[in-house]
Amino acid sequence: MKQLPRYLVGILSLLVLAFFVWRFTNIVWYIMIGLVLSFIGSPIASQFDKISFRKLKFPRWLSSLLSITVIILVVVAFFRVIIPLIANQAEVVAEIDVKELGVELEEPVENLTVMLHKYGIVAEGESIISTVEQQLRSILDMATFSNLLSNVASVAGALFIGVFAVLFIAFFFIKDENLFQSGIMLFVPDRHSKKVDSVLRNSKRLLSRYFLGLVGEMVTMMTLESIALTAFGVRGALLIGFLGGLLNVIPYLGPVLGAAVGTTIGVATVLSMGLYDQVLITAIIIVSVFIVCNLIDNIVLQPFIYSNSVDAHPLEIFLVIFIFGDLGGIVGMILAIPGYTVIRIIAREFLGQFRAVQTITSRLKMEKEE
User: Which DSSP string corresponds to 261-282?
Assistant: First the structure.
């Protein structure tokens, strides 16, 4: 009975925490994204810390500010490259001769319409073209545009506030590397302080390696896909490679989405030039490049990244990604590996006496307390 109040305090604390997360979801997201940026920025700041001028070293606040500046410059550079490519692609799509394309696709569309009539997907007397036109009119009506324009300002304002908040939080997490850890430790009982401290230290170390490796993987995939598509003479190769590498962050589903988006861009470019006989070969080249690059990613890049962070069996990772994906969709799939890493570290510290936990975490490299 003496233990009852202690358990009640613990339960009450969890309820308060859950309410805070639910009520201030945006703030929690800002903190988590800022924490991820600090994982990437801390190693950069450490490199600036090593710079000295006549025995004068960079203060930590300056190193932190410079690391944030580097991240911002990299993001801005990416956008300066990608936005003109997207604008150019929009011009390419606008150059498609719709009438000529309609003539070329008339027979295939008729065959498809007959099949859709047969299965009741499209009503008798209606064509695919008329159905698509009706849907487009319902989407692109004036009400939709007015709502879109009215929401642009609010979205832009919210985005500005979000970006500023994330960068502000990340700066202080980088400046004071123990800030997040110290904040968590305020709510931890003394009897669990050593284990929780170990969980936080090892989580930060492994997640920093993981996110840095993930950025390296993304850039490598962008480069490989862009070079390969350029070598095969695919137009819009840089844009396709950029989007493919970016979508590759999503486990398993990302390469499929990247190939689909890339094929759409490549085919649209060919159609705009009236090269209808090259549509199939262009699609085959793009899909083949994505398959080969994905094999390189699976065989070379991912094992290297996972060996320095997760260090789990491939089947284990596969199941975890699908479980997280079922719970949280695409966001869940992206968070699966870092989330599972933290769960394993916690299990190792607090449930290490169980054989199942010992087996799952046997290859997990833990940093000993200094």
Answer: HHHHHHHHHHHHTT-GGGHHHH
